[in-house]
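Write out this protein's structure.
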Amino acid sequence: MDDQTTPTPINAVTVEPETVEVGTVLTNLESMIKTTITQMDVKKDELRKLNEMTTSYLEQDSTYQEHEKAAKEANRIKNNTKSELLKQSGVAQTILQAKEIKKELKEAQDGLSDYLREYQRMSGSNEIEDDNGEIREIIYLAKLIKRSSKFK
């Protein structure tokens, strides 16, 4: 057996299941989530203000304004050319095929996610071996989004 111990990350909470009640752990976890959300909101606001300051500074420079105007004109011409080329039947068909494949891939990914969730629940394993013998790990990504006011 290895004598080395895994270092405890900074701000990590060590929880002994026998000594701490689940309710206390959940309360502490909820508090950490709320604190992190608040810190992220403050950082987002600070970033927005800094971006506004940068934009304001750039817009005051005459050379930047000239280059911005030239770039917009070049972009307009490029987009018009692209639009005309995309109207050709061969390109339009290719675009439709690509959209259909993207839709199929999204549906397949959603189905795979459901299959993996059920596989993990039933087997208790976070790994699965694919047809090529490669071991793949099942992971989940959690996101926190604001609820719409109509669902409150």
